[in-house]
Amino acid sequence: MRYALKLVILIAFALLGPSVGWLSAAPMSDAPVTAQPLPSASVSDSELEALLGQLSSFKQQVSQASNYSQLEGPQDLVQALIKEVDRLTTLLLPEQAQLQAQLGVLGPAPPDATPEKSDIALQRATLTGQKALVDAKLKSLATLKSSAAELLIQIAAIRRSLLESEVTQRTRSVLNPWFWATLFNPPEDDRQKFNAFLQQIGATLGATWRPGERLLTSFLIVMALVFWIFGRRVAERGLTWLCIHRMPEGRLRRSTLALSSVVATILSAWIALQLLFFTVTRELPLTPQLTGFSQDFEKIVYTCVLITGLSRALLSTQHPSWRLPAFADPLALAIKPYPTRLALALLVLVSLAQITNVTGMTPGLVISVRGLVALIVSAMIAMLLLRVNKTRRDMVAAGIAPEAGRTLAGMIYAFASIAIAISLLALLTGYISLSRFITYELVWFFIIFAGFYLLTQLFKDGCEHLFSPRHSTGKTLKQLLGIGDTRLEQISVILSGAGRAALLLIALITLMVGGIGSTLEQLATNILAMLGGDGLRKLNIVPANLLHAVLAVVIGLYLIRSLRRWLDDEFLPKTEMDPGMCASLSTLFSNIGYALVLLLTLSSLGVQWTNLAWIVSALSVGIGFGLQEIVKNFVSGIILLTERPVKVGDLISISGVEGDIRRINVRATEIQLADRSIVIVPNSQLISQNLRNVTLGGSAQGVATLELMFPLDIDPEQVRNLLYETFSEHETILEKPAPVVRFSQLKPEGITLTVTGYVNSPRMVTAIKSELLFEILKRLGAAGIELAKPPTA
Q1: Does 658 fall in a domain?
Q2: Is there a domain that residue 133 lies in?
Q3: What gap in Å lies between CA 20 and CA 323, rounded to an integer?
Q4: Which domain, by its residues, includes 706?
Q5: If you average pLDDT over residues 321-328, what whole number do you get?
Q6: How many domains does the chain have?
Q7: Hey, which of 453, 499, 538, 542 would disulfide with 459, CB 3.0 to 4.6 Å?
Q8: SS3 (DSSP) at 233
């Protein structure tokens, strides 16, 4: 009971968490720069010494870190130190430029023999000395920044090493009673550390609750609770009113309503934390241990706030018509209580784990707390998945669709189920840190996926509204740019697709460089470093290379198929290109995408292009022998897709095969015959052989020709007129060129007449010839004219 009471007191203190904005790595100097610059007016020697001392302290903390979590605080502080160095450098650069300009006005010192006024020489010497001091300080700041940047790289390497060792470390199983013995009966050393930590909390709380301060403390706590409980509702209602009355009716209003709910939740939590931190620190500053704990606790608070805020916004159980995902109401109501429960569990359990890290407790107790966190969080997520599965089965049995995009929903459900199964298996086999890592990453994945989904919907709806011809912005753009509705829709589709692709890239980077407890500032810094280019080369997590390669293949293929569907269904239909050109562009895009996915996969595996010389040599030998035909067909396919001598939909004839081109692949082309069968022709034949493209010119006409043999005793003029009239009177035979009846052959067996007519398309010839033959036989029978009979043997 004693330790339970202390834990309750500790959680009560934890609710009075800090805000990062109040915790600075070093004081910021606001001294003005005078017209006559003096180095001491902007950056003093004491500030430089303080920064050097802080860097030395950070190095000492890094060297003493024994687990992965203990390096999060020093990493944040080093980043803050770099920002402070940049600020001081910005203050000194104008002074350096001004001193250089003043020295330029005075000019260089004259030769020794030339006399100079003493006041000018004194002023030049003063300015030169001041500039030398500024240059020295700038050099010291540059050296300090370089050392801090190297320390960041070292911290990242140490964190990777500690993470690998912790994840692969095996201890007792959670089924072993000895695993929990340390948690329920901690060693005496850990008890002393915990009691010392509670004493620090008591001293801080006592300073704010002494006589004369209690009224203000009570008022500030009540105000913080009011902002958290009622402020969120007021802010959410206010933002909802603005969205309803200021945003147009439709999808954009629904997206902004969801975003406003998340913003109101985060804003109210931020204000409440600001007030509570001011309450506990206004009389007595926090000790180093409490400062580290408060920083970590503030991060987990924002993580829990994001879980609850995003869940409330996406589920929208109170207003189902505002819901962005296509969830049915029973499924949303089934999920509703679990995010809040998960957030509360994370708030308490992760705070307890942070205490063990800050106070430096024994590894046995740290592992026990990690097992407790992983077990409870995994069990809660497993309960959520079971509840969702049961609800979906009940809805399917009742004939109700649980959700619209069942493929994506099924993939997410399967992914979460597999992750939880692995986490529970790791707990049973003794891989406690691995289980905790999986559960943390699963929660982080939910936050990133939910935020990405919300932002992509908002961006897509915003583009559709901004470029819609029905709204004022779209009409203004049409008049300003002088474009039509089709072009405006194309711009909307392109910007929407590019924006969603950029958000997806940022989400993937965030998944890799972030985690539970990452602040927005850390994420922004890491994302910019990754996108800058150098970060991609410096990020070298060897154990994860295989996983990254698998993710590159899966995500790459998904992106290619999604973007191809977007091209086929959204963008290309809004262009003025013919269907054949659209199909060729879509196929060419897919081929380029597959090549890029292959290169990205090799890069994820750590394959250096300089090491591929032996692969190229082996391929050249293979191409010379077995792959020659494949390469030839591949190159021919690229030529067909770019030069387009034939395209999808053309009627061609090659090597006795005549039909419509159905698809042009990289290796071969599919030709559909009249009987709907498919002939696959290698691309090299289409390039190297003579090919008849009936529809290439776009104005090709079909020729309907019939050869008929009559007896020698007929009246040729009568037969000729009958054939000519039959062709001329048919509605599909063109007047120009006019039908022609020719005398082809004269044999003892009879007279052969050939009649020819033209139609609009070669595809019509077969059907029209059949109709003409029926009509000719009918008229010949009416006129009493018979066809010649073949000779008998």
Answers
A1: yes
A2: yes
A3: 33
A4: 702-783
A5: 82
A6: 5
A7: 499
A8: helix
